[in-house]
């Protein structure tokens, strides 16, 4: 019940309407005929680089739909989409500074982040988990007493993991890394006992690894991660344009095709994610 309440409050939360320091994105897009989208490589199945060296994934496809929707809303004959590769560490600054119009990956909605940037409707709901070796006896957070866990620095996963360990009085050494690939490498080499990240991205990471059969996930999650697209703070017209496209995808059921393309092999959408789609299928 607490998780569902938190989700609904996040969905209904409206950011303050203030003047955007970067100006109106829709005016800029209309004048230049270009929308600039940011993505992070190595976050499959949400965002990664395909064999054609182009961005791909669930979040990337959603942003492509957003670009098409904004083109239609602005009645443009054509709209160029420019993709900018970002890192987990610089993604929000890229939005705040105007280097990208929209960040399309696995950013989680937090109130502290909303002091810097604004967010779209929720695009996915995930949970933080820990990847371990199949041969290990580690199954729950309590099993990590005295162990070493890698986690990407500056993420909501790092914060949630520290809080979860603290609440349970579990003494664990956290090893900070910059990328998921770095965390998996440390785990594979036995230099850490676990690697913490969002459950779905960990599944995608392992699926792409030659040693996929040697890893397993914990039986429990330690956080709820509502994914959103980040955009410049205070640009409410652009936020509305983005949300109008997402709401249509949820309302029409088109989101199911995008979900199945990238996440269908993991099973149908969870009850929590299905609820997010339903609640956010706002009418025009």
Structure, briefly:
By secondary structure, the protein is α/β, with parallel strands linked by helices. The protein has helices spanning 2-12, 25-32, 58-73, 91-96, 111-114, 156-167, 180-188, 199-207, 236-252, 255-263, 271-279; strands at residues 34-40, 48-49, 55-56, 80-86, 102-108, 117-119, 124-133, 148-152, 173-177, 194-198, 215-217, 223-232. Strands 1, 4, 5, 6, 7, 8, 9, 10, 11 and 12 form a 10-stranded mixed β-sheet that branches.
Description:
- The protein folds into 2 domains: 2-125 and 226-279, D-Maltodextrin-Binding Protein, domain 2, CATH 3.40.190.10; 127-223, Periplasmic binding protein-like II (D-Maltodextrin-Binding Protein, domain 2), CATH 3.40.190.10.
- The protein contains 11 helices and 12 strands.
- It has helices spanning 2-12, 25-32, 58-73, 91-96, 111-114, 156-167, 180-188, 199-207, 236-252, 255-263, 271-279; strands at residues 34-40, 48-49, 55-56, 80-86, 102-108, 117-119, 124-133, 148-152, 173-177, 194-198, 215-217, 223-232.
- The strands form 2 sheets. Strands 1, 4, 5, 6, 7, 8, 9, 10, 11 and 12 form a 10-stranded mixed beta sheet that branches.
- Helix 3 crosses helix 9 (236-252).
- Residues 4-22 have low confidence and may be disordered.
Which ranges are low-confidence, i.e. pLDDT below 50, for 5 or more consecutive residues? 4-22
Q: How far is the N terminus from the C terminus? A: 29 Å
Number of helices: 11
Major β-sheet annotation: 10 strands, mixed
Averaged pLDDT? 91
User: What structural category characterises the helix and strand content?
Assistant: alpha/beta
What coarse outline follows from CA principal-axis ratios? elongated
Question: H/E series, N to C?
Answer: HHEEEHEHEHEEEHEHEHEEHHH
Task: Indicate how many domains the architecture comprises.
Answer: 2
Q: Count of DSSP E strands? A: 12
Q: State the oligomer.
A: single chain
Radius of gyration: 19 Å
Q: How much strand content do the residues show? A: 15-25%
The CATH class of the largest domain turns out to be Alpha Beta
CATH superfamily assignment of the largest domain?
Periplasmic binding protein-like II
- What is the helical fraction, as a range of percent? 25-40%
CATH architecture identity of the largest domain: 3-Layer(aba) Sandwich
CATH domain topology of the largest domain? D-Maltodextrin-Binding Protein, domain 2
